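Bench log, entry 3. Co-assembly request; chain sequences pasted below exactly as received.
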Amino acid sequence: MAEIVRAMLRRKDSRHNILVTRGDKKIFAAVKRTGGKDARSAKFHELSGAITIERIQEITGKGTILVVSAGTSDIPVAEEALLTARMMGNRAEHLYDVGVAGIHRLLEHREKLTQARVIICVAGMEGALPSVVGGLVAVPVIAVPTSVGYGASFGGVAALLGMLNSCSSNVTVVNIDNGFGAACVASCINRL
Amino acid sequence: MAEIVRAMLRRKDSRHNILVTRGDKKIFAAVKRTGGKDARSAKFHELSGAITIERIQEITGKGTILVVSAGTSDIPVAEEALLTARMMGNRAEHLYDVGVAGIHRLLEHREKLTQARVIICVAGMEGALPSVVGGLVAVPVIAVPTSVGYGASFGGVAALLGMLNSCSSNVTVVNIDNGFGAACVASCINRL
Amino acid sequence: MAEIVRAMLRRKDSRHNILVTRGDKKIFAAVKRTGGKDARSAKFHELSGAITIERIQEITGKGTILVVSAGTSDIPVAEEALLTARMMGNRAEHLYDVGVAGIHRLLEHREKLTQARVIICVAGMEGALPSVVGGLVAVPVIAVPTSVGYGASFGGVAALLGMLNSCSSNVTVVNIDNGFGAACVASCINRL
Amino acid sequence: MAEIVRAMLRRKDSRHNILVTRGDKKIFAAVKRTGGKDARSAKFHELSGAITIERIQEITGKGTILVVSAGTSDIPVAEEALLTARMMGNRAEHLYDVGVAGIHRLLEHREKLTQARVIICVAGMEGALPSVVGGLVAVPVIAVPTSVGYGASFGGVAALLGMLNSCSSNVTVVNIDNGFGAACVASCINRL
Amino acid sequence: MAEIVRAMLRRKDSRHNILVTRGDKKIFAAVKRTGGKDARSAKFHELSGAITIERIQEITGKGTILVVSAGTSDIPVAEEALLTARMMGNRAEHLYDVGVAGIHRLLEHREKLTQARVIICVAGMEGALPSVVGGLVAVPVIAVPTSVGYGASFGGVAALLGMLNSCSSNVTVVNIDNGFGAACVASCINRL
Amino acid sequence: MAEIVRAMLRRKDSRHNILVTRGDKKIFAAVKRTGGKDARSAKFHELSGAITIERIQEITGKGTILVVSAGTSDIPVAEEALLTARMMGNRAEHLYDVGVAGIHRLLEHREKLTQARVIICVAGMEGALPSVVGGLVAVPVIAVPTSVGYGASFGGVAALLGMLNSCSSNVTVVNIDNGFGAACVASCINRL
Amino acid sequence: MAEIVRAMLRRKDSRHNILVTRGDKKIFAAVKRTGGKDARSAKFHELSGAITIERIQEITGKGTILVVSAGTSDIPVAEEALLTARMMGNRAEHLYDVGVAGIHRLLEHREKLTQARVIICVAGMEGALPSVVGGLVAVPVIAVPTSVGYGASFGGVAALLGMLNSCSSNVTVVNIDNGFGAACVASCINRL
Amino acid sequence: MAEIVRAMLRRKDSRHNILVTRGDKKIFAAVKRTGGKDARSAKFHELSGAITIERIQEITGKGTILVVSAGTSDIPVAEEALLTARMMGNRAEHLYDVGVAGIHRLLEHREKLTQARVIICVAGMEGALPSVVGGLVAVPVIAVPTSVGYGASFGGVAALLGMLNSCSSNVTVVNIDNGFGAACVASCINRL
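Structure output for the full assembly:
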């Protein structure tokens, strides 16, 4: 992994931001050791395990991408989405711990919800959050089921099915735990 | 079916209410033809297909059972639960078409929700309603998944899994489309 | 159904287009009989079973929504998406019968693909089309699995899983056969 | 985890009981080290892995919650339910190792069964116990499938399906291994 | 079907009993029309849809095969097993409507259970009956899951899984609704 | 485990054989350490992980139980069945490595097959062996699917389904890897 | 369908054979009515529902394709494969009703098996036939699972899984009931 | 494992190549230690974990087997197929990292594709590659799904289903990750 990052850092002509998803401290240390100013600027994000090297900070997305998540255990996937959105040149904000069992926590943030241009909605267990959020806004909602849960959550299948059957018509779905993919789509929409 | 009803009507000693679930007009006509005052008082409930013969009207349940449902297509199962609860001697009310994609329709009825002693919550598709309702009240919520939906709803499995993974801790679940069973449990709780 | 349409036609204040999905000739005739200029202008679209009453023709979507589909049997779902997109105020075009087993048919239309602002990609069986299309464009691709196929297609599950695991990072997914939902999301994106 | 417990202990105003489910000896030691009279009173329950700090002993539940379980391997989940029920202010008793393959062991305890106000019924493998228990009592039975078993038990799915299809009409179901949730519902019913 | 029966009747040398499973009145009439003394002796068994032509009545099985079933809807499969056992030369008796939710109905018949040499146990829904019966006897129990039920019974899968996970060690399982197969095995055991 | 064995050894009145399934060398050493003549006679069977203490050698089964298995990897489950059958007082023999892809290896042993009174048939992967064996003999065949295989074997589900759908009518099935259970049933049949 | 056939018949330049799979007598009559010598030569094959118009009889396949099938109910799929193979220019023979429960019927035809250049092996239920056939020959075996069976055959899934887990290394698999596809592959191999 | 290899090396009469699939460095070292010229010539292939001892280098396959794979993570399975094909006496080449999301990488190699006599096509995730490759060539394509992916890839099930539903008629499928089996079939075809 560090080898790939080193190769990317060497290529002088292209100066993209670099993002390693689902890394760990060992990979981070190896990246650091590759040397050079960029490598030294690498950051490790503990919650998501992502490693980022930000080389350009230009914002190319037109609006704000908002990452909303349900429970504490969904935060790693939400953070992966948040960082990916930012590394792809978007203003990205977050709204965590607003699961549907305490609906008022979500409703208190209606303004934040309505200001976003694209929403990424991360939830495990019953995966109900995107339906509620989708009903509160008029913009596209990218739903990310997480593998959080046990027993009949079947590693995220319950949340995935819930999201595919969402009764809100502005919801689409990506694979379980795919925070990265959700941010790619959101970024692609935000550049339109 | 009419034969069984006739046998029940003949038994003089027991005077329970009689409930036929998932009947139709043909069975209703046959029941009517069995003759006698009770048979003539039989009612056919088109939405749920239930046939009821109400012979005692005593209320034995201590509080109100509230049947809440998400979409229009969930109403047949909700009605089955409502009628069953009533035939078992409970005050039962309903609150339909309050799906989570339009969360304010549900929130407008908070008073009704908080006045119930037991809540039956009927929903298909993503089955998210019980989680939201469960978060708004402190009483037991019996969740009934319905087979409403298509594709990845898998005949109610998506809703069933969503409900089993509910993040509200006062939610229990019965089988898909089992409005009758939910009302039995609710009634059993309401007599405590 | 015709009853609902009649009620919608009566409401003078709102003049939205009206779309009935998965209708048939009988419903169409009933809609026609409701009378009035609008009802008389109703059109029945045989391929998708949709009935449309177009009352406003203003284009509010900023670009073109392109509906791409794989096989002949996928066309009903594709048509549902196409009509929905149009009724919601979008320029919408289509590109049918470009399944991946004859990749050159798809590649001949690269220009059409790159001119779209949003792409809806409809496919049954192995559901591979969105991955290929996603790799050819930089805009969001909404993938719609169809229940076309038999045996191990499991009513669209094979296509659904294929799309959720797409290796193209600009692909999101809606429920099986949900051409309507895909067009809602596409339209919502196209208005940004 | 110990950090969260410490924060809870510090909050002077609220004096709830504290329950950590699925803990271990390491977490227990860390809790102990947080200091103070409450922390020192913490107990580790080996069978369920629960850690409890009992600060109030008031009984608020009206009757007895009885936890019934089938096999020896179901006891950890049963214990989690038992402790949760007690920590929530209920009188709670248990009846273990009364699986349906030795039906007389269960029948010998009919009196205990009929004295309970709510029953929690914990079983893995074929999950048949709640149906039998439900037939012996008139109170609500909360069924908890466990992931006990191998092969075609599919991590508790066999027991879960068995319970959802119970022919006893006073049975509702919670998620696999969810002893905590079952006790929450039972406690919520017991306060009615 | 009638054609096959006719061919079997013609073969003079072999004089087995003839059994048609899952037939109907039309097939029965056609069999009757094939003519001859044997065909005229054919019987149609309405509950199971079986057609039997009994040509030899010799009992070759050493003991009694007892067919036990849970609910009224399981009787067609139970009858198929009963008739098959008899046509294969066994003394066969039945014990119906002894589901586990009313355990005392089953326990009242302990003598009948203990007199059998092989037991066939037919049950749908949660499929719990074979575990209870298996615990009451020392002889082999052949469990037959039925497709009776709805929703999460998944066409007999819930009962099948329950039976495969039976905690009684004298239980084996055949395919869903396979009353015929269960009787073949039972008969094969009874001839040992 | 060793504790349970020790308790069993202490009970003077009952002198059953003792069988520990799925043990290991550590448990075996602990059993040995419990002391006494019986404990010293304990044997560890490496292939199946079983530990046996044979205290009575009387044969109570009337005929021979033959354990047949398909591939090398199925042997642990087959051995568990073989040892269980023997510890329960049966003459038990085995026939290993006779998978259906080399059908002649099986056919060479027809005599052995026809001499058995009950056959236990152990197979993973496609689980085809019981169908072939069932067609070669007239006695009951207990089929044991094993979790041997990878990918689409789904931990033994492929073999389980194959066996449940066997076209041989003398085949019944037990749970995946349940060599112990198969031997219990076989022994129970062999005592008839 | 008849319309498509008519269009194919009109195209003078290409003279391929024409094959309609899963047709019926109505389609056949319509094809006949399209007129012309070729249409008049159309044949309806009742067992498979196929309609064939043979315009060229040149054999381009190098060897014989042998279609082997297990039970009577598998014959429609086997016939579809046989006709497809022939219409594509192959010598094709068949060997039906040689299921593994009567292994000697299969073994009697070893010569026929070893003379084939490619074998198509059609089986439902446990789908064991390809493993046995694969072990008897050295040529490629294309396995076709059929949806024949009930209960735990799950519409051909049991047979499909069995075939994917075949212990014979010369077996590959096509979709459930896909006799046409199997013959396409076999023909493609036979032209090498 | 090394023991088996040693036994194979000792058998003087047969001089086949030896292939150990899914081995590791420890097994390799043990094989090396068995001594003799052949053992010393053993090679360890890190990507696939295969160990090969090439004793004969005669090419018996008539054409070239081409192994095509989609992503980097599919290479271990592809390598297993490649080595197996070579050890069985075939000319075998490879074409890696030509996934369908970058269709032009694949199309640049059309010549290589059309020169192969048999193609093995290895892909995880959506498993779309065999459909595209199958459409570009006229020779048989053996599709190998891999367990590469996460979430809704379900350990290769998504790819497996995609391949079974391939719209290219020259595609057959083997088990998940079964590179060895695919090469056996390919080799068997290549010798025809």
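The longest strand of chain D covers residues 64-69. The beta strands of chain D are 18-20, 43-45, 50-53, 64-69, 91-95, 118-123, 141-145, 171-173.
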